């Protein structure tokens, strides 16, 4: 694999986060409590955080598989792991009527080589796809694991023919997790090939989700080690989400602000959608419910989108800054709720297109709204902008790696998780900033009310006779309440002093 090219440095300059994004000075506005809050995210911190995420998500990758054969024939040497993609012959079965014996015996002219990179994303197809590769074991190892990390693949079938016979195995998210031959969040099969021998591997893939020709072959030790690393990372992600849920739950019970509850629902739904995407949900939560396992990702994304829209209305204070857009976002949230059930009614293919529309429109919409509000001096909107920029950066890196534009490794494969983790933390900090601003505004309003009352009391003390207060049987005029004294006779005589009544 090629190393990544040097990333050009981005100079933010001496402007605030919102100014850097839009390239224009902020619109002059009346001073508010939020505009008086010192920006809690200094520019230096933001720069370091930005570069730190890029360094973590975009490490250079080194090709570890030199001299492993020619197309259609893969040589297994002493390396612990291998890319299968460069050696895989592929065949499209548009009529879905081919079988193993037919595919195995076909001439090479019927096949076409897979992409030169390990990951080949063919998008949504109505065809079945077959793959074929010959293996030659020149190492001292005998046990290997053939893996496909995409958990959303509906049906994956392999035939491995060696001198000892043919092994036929299958996996997919339409089967209960307990039926998997290897307990793996994706799909994995154990292959036995003694040193010095050859074998032929044939693959059949059928799915209503996107077709991903992403396959790896690893030694037993390497596969177990990589699993441990993957589960450690995924466990850390789940743990962070759990901590954020507990933190915001404590804040909700302390402050009783509804935005915290909406945010908790969003975190929970989004975290579950990522666990569904990775296959962890099927492995540990709903593994014996194949129908839910097949549709869970789309359903959870739809529900998370609705929660995000409602949270955005609350977090960005749209009722004050953009009342019309408030109703528009709430309308989108109402549409997203029933749309999340579409997979059960229309099937995966139709539902995923609607989800993709939301995935394309929603980010652009909320970012534009947040930028506009940030320019008006609303500090929490800056957190919102950077939170989503980190998430989108992770999503784009993940997508680029899936299409072969970036090296496929543990960092690029989990870039979306990393971006969403940063997003959740920044939004939690933003909620704190929002509550700070609301508290300052409340204190400012209370101070103004107290000052008005004090001025009024000074006026009363100056012009209301002491005998009037004594007649009402109170010690101080501020103790009077409307309706306390009725039907009492009193004569009040005012003398025009210094034109008091004019």
In summary, what is this structure?
This protein is of the alpha+beta class. The protein has helices at 17-22, 43-57, 100-105, 220-255, 258-278, 280-284, 290-315, 318-321, 323-339, 342-346, 348-374, 380-402, 410-413, 415-463, 466-471, and strands at 69-70, 73-76, 81-83, 89-93, 112-113, 121-123, 128-137, 143-148, 155-162, 165-171, 187-192, 198-206, 211-212, 216-219.
Write the layout of secondary structure elements.
Blueprint: H1 17-22, H2 43-57, E1 69-70, E2 73-76, E3 81-83, E4 89-93, H3 100-105, E5 112-113, E6 121-123, E7 128-137, E8 143-148, E9 155-162, E10 165-171, E11 187-192, E12 198-206, E13 211-212, E14 216-219, H4 220-255, H5 258-278, H6 280-284, H7 290-315, H8 318-321, H9 323-339, H10 342-346, H11 348-374, H12 380-402, H13 410-413, H14 415-463, H15 466-471
Parallel strand pairs: 2-7
Antiparallel strand pairs: 1-2, 3-14, 4-5, 4-7, 6-13, 7-12, 8-11, 8-14, 9-10, 9-12
Helix pairs in contact: 4-5, 4-14, 5-7, 7-9, 7-11, 11-12, 12-14
């Amino acid at each position: 694999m090629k190393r990544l090219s040097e990333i050009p440095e981005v100079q933010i300059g001496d402007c605030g986060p919102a100014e850097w994004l839009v390239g224009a000075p902020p619109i002059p506005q009346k001073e508010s409590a939020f505009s008086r809050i010192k920006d809690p995210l200094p520019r230096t911190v933001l720069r370091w955080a930005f570069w730190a995420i890029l360094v973590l998500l975009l490490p250079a990758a080194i090709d570890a598989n030199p001299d492993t054969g020619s197309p259609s024939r893969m040589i297994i040497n002493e390396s612990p792991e291998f890319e299968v993609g460069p050696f895989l012959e592929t065949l499209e079965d548009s009529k879905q009527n081919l079988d193993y014996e037919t595919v195995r015996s076909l001439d090479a002219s019927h096949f076409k080589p897979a992409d030169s990179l390990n990951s080949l994303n063919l998008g949504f197809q109505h065809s079945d796809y077959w793959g074929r590769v010959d293996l030659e074991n020149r190492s001292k190892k005998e046990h290997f694991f053939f893996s496909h990390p995409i958990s959303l693949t509906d049906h994956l079938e392999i035939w491995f023919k060696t001198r000892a016979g043919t092994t036929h195995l299958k996996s997919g998210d339409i089967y209960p997790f307990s039926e998997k031959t290897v307990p793996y969040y994706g799909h994995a099969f154990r292959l036995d090939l003694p040193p010095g021998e050859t074998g032929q591997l044939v693959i059949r893939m059928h799915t209503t989700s996107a077709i991903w020709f992403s396959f790896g072959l690893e030694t037993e030790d390497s596969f177990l080690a990589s699993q441990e690393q993957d589960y450690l990372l995924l466990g850390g992600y789940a743990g962070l989400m759990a901590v954020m849920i507990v933190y915001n739950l404590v804040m909700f019970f302390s402050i009783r602000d509804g935005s915290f509850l909406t945010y908790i629902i969003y975190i929970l739904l989004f975290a579950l959608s990522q666990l569904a995407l990775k296959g962890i949900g099927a492995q540990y939560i709903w593994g014996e419910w194949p129908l839910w396992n097949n549709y869970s990702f789309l359903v959870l994304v739809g529900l998370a989108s609705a929660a995000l829209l409602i949270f955005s209305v609350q977090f960005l204070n749209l009722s004050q800054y953009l009342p019309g857009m408030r109703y528009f976002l709430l309308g989108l949230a109402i549409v997203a709720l029933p749309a999340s059930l579409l997979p059960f009614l229309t099937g995966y293919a139709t539902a995923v297109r609607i989800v993709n529309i939301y995935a394309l429109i929603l980010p652009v919409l909320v970012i534009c709204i947040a930028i506009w509000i940030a320019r008006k001096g609303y500090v929490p909107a800056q957190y919102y902008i950077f939170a989503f920029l980190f998430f989108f950066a992770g999503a784009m890196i993940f997508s680029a790696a899936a299409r072969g534009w970036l090296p496929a490794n543990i960092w690029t494969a989990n870039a979306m998780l990393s971006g969403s983790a940063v997003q959740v933390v920044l939004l939690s900090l933003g909620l704190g900033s929002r509550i700070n601003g609301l508290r300052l505004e409340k204190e400012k309003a209370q101070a103004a009310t107290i000052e008005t009352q004090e001025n009024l009391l000074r006026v009363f003390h100056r012009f209301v006779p002491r005998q009037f207060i004594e007649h009402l049987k109170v010690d101080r005029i501020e103790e009077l309440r409307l309706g306390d004294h009725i039907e009492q006779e009193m004569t009040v005589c005012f003398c025009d002093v210094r034109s008091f009544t004019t």
